[in-house]
Design brief:
By secondary structure, this protein is of the alpha/beta class. It is built from 13 helices and 10 strands. Strands 1, 2, 3, 4, 5, 6, 7, 8, 9 and 10 form a 10-stranded parallel sheet that branches. The structure holds S-adenosylmethionine, 6-(5-methyl-2-OXO-imidazolidin-4-yl)-hexanoic acid and iron/sulfur cluster.
């Protein structure tokens, strides 16, 4: 679909009023997706360069602090108790275990440490232990992020008190496709948690997954929803589905790399001040495919051998790739 309002813009996007504080509609985001590939990537590079050092890449290391046995039915997830994925479950780690992993991440150069729990949301009794982890990791001089699921009133404030910087909670896909992927909670539940995170003064990390059988319109719908959050998330992880045997999405058709790069470029152009993270699925990509994603405006990665339950490129390989591309980690 061609949208003349966007396509007729001269090639200096952030100087144009429409790109300043635009309200993105699904159609205007779709118009970006439908640009010729080089035009789209050129615009994305321009927006990146107008707002960031284009060769600096933010690095976050992930740790699963509570693994598996989750009540929810997210169709992509290895950690739902509803699917036979062969995952070894793990109760909440101790602060000492978390601190050891955070110290190692810091030594490798990570700037942020993200702790993920396979919960629908944290129970009141779980929160003190997580708060202790956050304070301890923060004291190492790392930025802190947690992803714990849906938050109840007051929980975001408690996490903020403990020194938390970011809360990750993904919208994951367009509102109209969400029910095809998850039935145990709603899109509105996710929006409500994002709102309570903002109101508590935390920074927001929110993105999604592509390659779940969604259409381009759904991908544009996800990007429009994220870009219209007010303000948009500071961090936007774009995950490429890692197919997990035993889950309903195990046999999803892999997404074309150009369509994946287009999704990254659309995120970059619509959220000019956000870090856009090339997230899960990097291990399944070659170096050239990752380089394409950086050209499309990604300026953040998950760094370290593990995501939550699946693997990520080994640190030495990432260091070599950064060297080849002249990128440096921050
Ligand atoms: N339970 C919390 C929640 O659902 O928000 C936090 C953990 S959950 C695993 C965090 C995010 O990881 C999901 O929202 C999804 O975007 C991503 N994710 C999970 N499994 C994935 C997979 N197989 N491939 C790509 N991304 C995945
Ligand atoms: C995000 O958007 N991706 C990360 C993090 N936030 C929590 C998780 C990716 C998980 C990939 C599949 C796994 O390792 O279980
Ligand atoms: Fe549970 Fe989160 Fe996995 Fe959904 S994505 S099953 S809520 S761990």
């Amino acid at each position: 679909m061609n949208n003349p309002a966007i396509l007729s813009q001269p090639l200096s996007p952030t100087q144009q009023p429409i790109f300043r504080n635009p309200t993105w509609t699904v159609d205007t985001v779709l118009a970006l997706f439908e640009l010729p590939f080089a035009d789209l990537l050129f615009r994305a590079q321009q927006v990146l360069r107008e707002n960031f050092d284009p060769n600096a890449v933010q690095r976050s290391t992930l740790l699963s602090i509570k693994t598996g046995n989750c009540s929810e039915d997210c169709g992509y997830c290895s950690q739902s108790k509803r699917y036979q994925t062969g995952l070894e479950t793990q109760r909440l780690l101790s602060t000492e275990e978390v601190l050891a992993a955070a110290k190692a991440a810091k030594e490798q150069g990570a700037g942020r440490f993200c702790m993920g729990a396979a919960w629908r949301g944290p129970k009141e009794k779980d929160l003190p232990a997580v708060m202790e982890m956050v304070s301890a990791v923060k004291a190492l001089g790392l930025e802190t992020c947690v992803t714990l699921g849906i938050l109840k009133d007051g929980q975001a404030e408690q996490l903020k008190e403990a020194g938390l910087d970011y809360y990750n909670h993904n919208l994951d896909t367009a509102p109209e496709f969400y029910g095809d992927v998850v039935t145990t909670h709603t899109y509105q539940d996710r929006l409500d948690t994002l709102q309570s995170v903002r109101e508590a003064g935390l920074k927001v990390c929110s993105g999604g997954i592509v390659g779940m059988g969604e259409t381009r319109q759904h991908r544009a719908g996800l990007i429009a929803k994220l870009a219209n959050l007010d303000p948009p998330p500071e961090s936007v992880p774009i995950n490429n589905l890692v197919p997990i045997p035993g889950t309903p999405l195990a046999n999803s058709n892999p997404i074309d790399i150009f369509e994946f790069a287009r999704t990254i470029a659309a995120a970059r152009i619509t959220m000019p001040h956000s870090y856009v993270r090339l997230s899960a699925g990097r291990e399944q990509m070659g170096e050239a495919e990752q380089a394409l994603c950086f050209l499309a405006g990604a300026n953040s990665i998950f760094y370290g051998d593990h995501l939550l339950t699946t693997s990520n490129p080994q640190t030495p390989y990432d260091n070599v790739l950064f060297k080849k591309l002249g990128l440096y980690g921050v």
